[in-house]
Request: fold
Amino acid sequence: MKELIKKLTQVSAPSGRERKVHLAILEELEGFIDGYRFDNVSNLIVWKNGNGENKKNFIFDGHADEIGVVITNIDEKGFLRIDPVGGVNPLMLLGTLLNFDDVTGIVSYEGETDEDAKKSLTQPSYDYLFVDIGATSREDAQKKVHIGQFGSYLSPFVDMDPMLVSKSMDDRIACAIVVQAIKETQNPYHNIYGIFSVQEEVGILGAKVAAYDIHADIAIAVDVTGHTDTPKGNKRMDLQLGKGPAIKIKDKASISDESVVRLLTKCAKANQIPFQYEVLIYGGTNAHGYQLTGAGIKSGTLSIPCRYVHSPHEMVHLEDVKNAVRLLNAVALKSDW
Amino acid sequence: MFLKDLCEINGASGNEDRVRSYIQEQLKSPEEPGQVDVLGNLFFEKKGNGTSDKTILLMAHTDEVGLMVTNIQDDGLLAVSPIGGVDPRVLLGKRVWVGENNLPGVIGYKAIHLQKEDFKTLPDWDKVRVDIGAQKKEEAQKSVNLGDYVHFYSPFEEYENRYVGKALDDRAGCALLMALYRELPVLNHRVVFAFVVQEEIGLRGSGSTLKRYKPDAAIVVEGTTAGDNPELKRERWSTHLDNGPAISYLQSGYALDYRLFEAIVAFANQKGILYQLKGRTVGGTDGTRLASTYFGVPCAGVNIPSRYIHSPVSVISKKDFENTKQFIADILTEEILLKALEVKV
Reply:
């Protein structure tokens, strides 16, 4: 599973530019699915047919995109200006490497005076940031990159057994979980739709379209969530790495349908899968899109507690990941819900 | 001239009737009288010649930003609230029209003699008042109701290279679509021209277009931010006047369809068409709504750079207007969007 996680997290595919990760997912799923297609907004939808007498349609969603940046300007000396793609705090970019389709950039900041430099560091803003790709002029830079080109963090996969660290655990860890669950579930009872949705990070776009498209009875968004188990972690919540995948009760964008919470809880208990409940006081997932679109789908979120979300180095616990796969398997095989 | 007429018609979000009527009057024919839906969106359809069952949607919004009367004070002054994004600084010292009958009014500010350093702080909405010359509440109530719209008073002007007026966001888009509707020959596929309501207050009008026409792809045409003013540093300009149509790739809530974006840019490069890539990603357009509603429509954004939008005096380049129109006509005629979507991922 580590190899799969490494493969999917290391692909650079920010919102709107998910093609590469979709192809990696299809490569992994070859021989394990009954079909796939891309919809109008390029969501990748795969399916595996169930054989249960009273089978339902289940969505397992992991969003394919990651946060990133986009080039908005190239100056005469070949330095780039960028805007965020999704929620990227400019503070996270200082001293970070970026990857624009295999062209590497270094992020640094302006400072004509000591005061300016201090401002750049204490009030980081995209107005004061620039990216250096080692170009010597605008013409030189334009040979390597172009305005409107999307990029992502360039940061390694690190195995800190049992912790795993990489860029874009949000939400490739979910892609890996859904892929693995589909691979491992032989003869599911229910029809399973794996949706590797686009543009979650800029506004839950892909899930809204998929929700209209797929007539599902239940949608489970798999996504990362926060953590509270670090020094002076948020004391209003409780989320710990290694305590099991988290069954979301609520975040700022959705309240998980009671029946979904019950189903996940039952399946976890019946199979001795450790889990924790999650009440997140911020954030949102694709469950929001699945709930609100069309006639609405009973939706919930299965979360992976994650440290340092939206930073270049996001950390998850391998056991939580494996247990999330087991839990999805149990859901796919369960005859009643 | 469509653009002059459109800019001088008042139509803030929710109050687009006059804009819609004007467009319909100008474009209607016995064969195509135009369709108005329940929200007030207006559609004109140009049928294809029968060789293609595809539909391309062109969209512009008919509404503009403005104000609404929220209170009539005892002293006869009107308190107002913004409709859409309005910077209160652009209002001071301006003439306005109040209500359906265009009652004239002014938004004044105390003379500089009477100020200490007021100009260093922002006027807030609690201080912005419309003066219609009424002495007291009862007098004002004779001609004004709560909920009356307030529009910028701003006669349209033509400079040698420029058009100047209010509401170029997005009457420039409306005028461009009107001209294209008149000028485009019959193509293989159908083209739907949508003039939609209530964009400025949250993309509310455009969604209903989708079930009616089931478009395969859309181009949203906006009078978009220029920001090439000296007070902004060049690296953070959004677009530049006279540099041609501005193609967008990311906006609030939506990374515009990469297949369409890449195809349009490649087409422009291949044909040597003057264009620019938008330098900022803030702000939304109806494209976000089109891509995220129902089955989702892949969208492209091709825009007319406009200075000082959301103020009484926005400015566009005559050349940009013509070039953008021609560019979109070429994209449609050569079926660039449909070809881009045919390519398997």
Summary: The radius of gyration of chain A is 20 Å. The longest helix of chain A spans residues 169-184. DSSP finds ten helices and 17 strands in chain A. Chain A has a mean pLDDT of 96.
